[in-house]
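User: DUF6850 domain-containing protein. Structure?
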Amino acid sequence: MRRNIARGLGILSLVWLSGTSLHAQGFSPAGMESLMQQKLWFYSRNAAGTVFDDTRNYSNVKVGYGMERGDFHRPQEGEDTRHLNVSSEGFLNLRDAYVWGEFSFEQRNVHDAGYNASVTDPFRGMPYYVVDSHLSKWRSQYYNLRFRAATPLYWNKVAFGLEGTYVASIATKQRDPRADTRFYTLELVPGITYNINGKHKLGGNFEYASIKEDSRMSNANNYVDQDYYELYGLGVAVKGIGSGRTANYFGNRLGGGIQYNYNVRKVNVLFEGTYTVKVENVEVSFDDPRKDASVKERVAQAALSLYGRGNRFSHFFRTGYYYRHIDGIQYVSQYDNSDSQNGWMDLYHSIRSTYRLKVASADYSVSKNRGDEYSWKVDVGIRYRKNKDEYLLPNSLKGAENLYWGLCGKRNLSIGNTHNRRLLVSAAAGYNKNLSGSYRYGGSHADYLTVTELETQDENYLISDFYRIGADITYSQQYSADKKTHIFAKAGFDYVKTSDYGFDHRSYITFSMGVNF
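Assistant: Predicted structure:
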């Protein structure tokens, strides 16, 4: 049912986006990139700031295909991955309202993925799931629908906005013990902005999200029981045999943010700070639920963005900080089959593990203006990342600290005056330097594969030095001389190389084509 709803909404969004093309501006790929870079409020959590951004109409539809291959990946990721995606996006200025929408669908086939037998995404901050020892295929579908609606300024002072997101996914493991998982998130973010005097603006937003995932394990061959491990963090696990378990993940997230914007003729600055709290529970079995664990996640973020456009050059700078703290809570339960109460009773619960992540980043780009486009562009960036995980008793520790820098250069070549033909060429390089990190297990059953394979291999990946190189090329032109619609085709390649801990490389190839209205 949810899949049909998502597909229906996707079709409606495509129809709506096609309708906007009658009024759209028509941008080349470089022009679209330049437009989106200067829309600072668009990347905030407050839709009410839309009125302060560039409000020209645009829309696009894109189809893409990608491949990943190589042994340099986290243990739960596959050796070989293929994905097909379709997406559409559009913005419409209705004068008395601003509306933006986006829909995307992705079909992902993963080969030889290991150490996950129960959840769609083992990296989403939920440490309680089931793993097994068998490499398997995973087939997954992802649906993402987002919208933004905002008012113009009322009384030249106040604007209101609303952002909504619906994310749904279906993932199935193709080898015993098999898994069938359904995940969704529904999020609403209302916001308000206040124009102080034209140069200074203030904003605030509130957000609420509902999270749910159904996980069902089974065996196709009922004559052979399978070993599996229920994870409780950093390698701590309970071993089982059979067809696995069913689990119900559900929770809510609440939070808010504030924004300050300073904007003069050639300089636009936006600061934003947000804070959210999420509580998600894990219950085993749908028929007779037993509360197994829960997480309490707190996330604080801050970002400062600056955009400046002169007669010849445009500059963009963004720095950000991200902090996430997760408390892993485990429960002790007892089954009560008395007449007054029939079911599981929670006797005791406590925080047994913590997970901390810090990320700091800075990015700068400069481009040479050419109308709505750029003729060339240079991007530089640096990112510091540190994670520190701990299982409290018996004590286990896992951490990694890395510094990554990247450089990218782009050249937008004009290869013909007719039909506005363009060739956008990009080359990028980056290097990751590990600063520190280790994994130490202090619990029982140190011979379990959750310790010797899963966590050890994951730590080796996290503390590896590597370099990355990549390039892509995009050809675009107007559909016809008298229409501003641009068609484009793009091909890209990335290569990641390391020599640490027996890893070798990972390669990425992508192809896409689409239309900018």
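Residues 1-24 have pLDDT under 50 and may be disordered. The longest strand covers residues 342-370.
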